Amino acid sequence: MLKAGVLGAGHLGKIHLKLLNQSEKYNLVGFYDPIKENAQKVEEEFGYKSFDTIQELIDAVDVVDIVTPTLSHFDCAKEAIEKGKHIFIEKPITKTVEEAEKLIELANKHKVKGQVGHVERFNPAFTAVKDSLNKPMFIETHRLAEFNPRGTDVPVVLDLMIHDIDIILSVVKSKVKSVNASGVSVISETPDIANARIEFENGCVANLTASRISLKNMRKTRFFQKDAYIAVDFFEKATEVVKMQDAPKIPGDFDMILQNAEGIKKQIYFENPTVEANNAILDELETFADAITNNTTPIVTLEQGTEALRVAHMIINDF
Question: How far apart are CA 228 and CA 206, in angstroms?
Fold first, then answer.
């Protein structure tokens, strides 16, 4: 078992502590939180060991799980990597692309592994259909959330939209050609609602909308590709897969047939992939343990987390 420690015992940090404690692939050593009152409360309530300094925690573990505010990601990760520790780091990987690139350089130098917490890669609705995603040419995403003061210290692009940026970059195997975006600050000092259009060199276009001032929650992505429409509801953990194939010469009574202007007939059929319930955060943590143990590539690498951040900043800079 890998000895693990958590930096940050806020809302998400406590979830990570609980799951690492449950996991059979980790031995949870403890945590560090700079707010002493919070650290004491978490230690007393859950029984996890609280360390007095970041350095003491890092020295005691094999894997450092960084669940601190984004502004401190780089300093925490740098210190862990330089002591030869593997790092799991919440999204966004760092505040700036330059910081992220430095972490990649350090991780390579010290021969440690890193994974970024883009948890939607482990959403069962997405994993159920990702093998069916084949060169989508138009993608539309909506990630809408009710207002929550937690997280408003960063633009909605880094808070919410970056989830969809990462998903899109994992599916579209092409470089970004251009970005057009707009954002509006309604309640916060940074944009609360944003829309971005990303064009890729292969012709794919992605249209992303993110809001943290909506009246209801929605996390839905629609993929359009040759002979298929695939929808992923990340919130409800549901999928919708509609495909087309050449129509049979003699259609059945219940076959759905479409004919285009050129007279080509297509049969429409529906697929219902199995969406298996899971705990996506536990899955991302445990697959990272597997990558360390088996010396394989993590599912969401530091490089991929950096690319998502790079595109996010392209969007922010276009406001």
Answer: 16
Q: pLDDT tens digits, residue range 198-221?
A: 999 999 999 999 999 999 999 999
What is the DSSP pairing of strand 86-90 with strand 114-117?
A: parallel
Helices (H), the chain: 11-22, 36-46, 54-59, 73-82, 97-110, 124-129, 156, 162-171, 280-294, 302-317
**Going by DSSP bridges, is the β-strand pair 205-211/238-246 parallel, antiparallel, or unpaired?**
unpaired
What is the maximum span of the chain, computed from C-alpha positions, in angstroms?
75
pTM for this entry: 0.94
Instruction: Give the mean pLDDT of the chain.
Output: 95
- CATH of range 2-112; options 3.20.20.370, 3.40.640.10, 3.40.50.720, 1.10.1040.10: 3.40.50.720
CA-to-CA separations, 290 to 6, 29, 102, 113, 284, in angstroms, rounded: 18, 19, 25, 11, 10
Are the beta carbons of 206 and 172 closer than 8 angstroms? yes
- Kindly report, residue by residue over 141-163, the tens digit of the pLDDT: 999 999 877 666 678 999 999 99
